[in-house]
Amino acid sequence: MRIQRVDPANRRDVSRFVGFPFRLYSDHPQWVPPFLHEARAELDPRRHPFYQHSEAAFFLALSEGSVIGRLTVLDNQRYNKLHGERTAWFYHFEAADDCTVSRALFDAGFDWARSRGLQRIWGPKGLAHTDGQGILIEGFEHRPALGIPYNYPYYATLIEDAGLESNLDFLSWYMDQEIGLPTRFLEVAEKVKVRRGYRSLVYHRKEPLRAFLPQVRSIYNDAFKGVQGFVPITEAEILSIADRILSIADPELISLLLKGEDLIGFVLAYPDISAALQRCRGRLWPLGWFYLLRELRRTRWININGMGILEEYQGLGGNALLYAELARILVDHPQYRFADLVQIQETNLSIAQEMEALGVRAWKRHRVFQRSLL
User: Fold this and answer.
1) Helix axes 235-246, 213-223, angle to 10 degrees
2) What is the pLDDT of residues 207-255, one digit of tens each?
3) In the listed set 118, 145, 169, which residue is the last one of a domain according to the structure?
4) Same domain, yes or no, for 137 and 202?
């Protein structure tokens, strides 16, 4: 076995790196492939906004010419500058069930991080803000939401064998149309709307939503600053995220919360197209678009991957309005019956308590690991 550093300019290297999980999970009923064009873009400094400010290294584990593992290590320079740290992130970890493979990959990644003066590593954590964090620890029987990691149960053992330890868990929550917000809760939400001059806004077309992108960026950068790994979204990144989400969005699932004419919060939900991605194996051509469009019409699931409100409104009834909008999304759209509210940081006790009070249950757990490089 040997470890090879991937050359992002070498098409064969990139294809082997991107293609490995397709082989590793070829017979797995739950794994959902990424869009191939997006997976390739993550290795291309010309196409991904991450490389406007930071750097990455990609590694392959090879045995007799075949790929048996892969790993990415990131030097997010904006994160380190903002937080005064020297921290590396790891991502794209995939490997056969063999500790010698994972050990060799992580050793190569550790060496690259140390060569850059980085003193700590944690992950999995991706290049973009919409990339899911951690590895799956609980909920293997469920298909993942779009962009949220799925992996074999043995991954935790491999990561711990490389000297990393548990750092933080993220919980995803299951919701369905049976969720019944108490009448008093909905009454409070309506009273708050009237008393404080709040209103919710939903569009029937996608294009008007783009006008709110600068405000959405500001809210995200305010509301999510307490989440581990937070880095303010750049203008280029919010445009990239918007292009990705709006390509599959149902605009009626996106709710904007305003005070007067100012955006103060949002709920971002979109149809779950994971079954179509499984069918087309991440390829849009020649039939991928057909499968995607068909799934958009027939899926009964939505993914909720963004819910935020400006900090100054969080204690003023704004949270109640966000939950009321969640209920509206499920109740007012007969096509959709189930929802996956993805990756709430476990240390966010207020949201966990609110979810449990509403009868919503956690059904997936992802774990982030860390270790010192000193």
Assistant:
1) 110
2) 999 999 999 999 999 988 888 889 999 999 999 999 989 999 999 999 9
3) 169
4) no
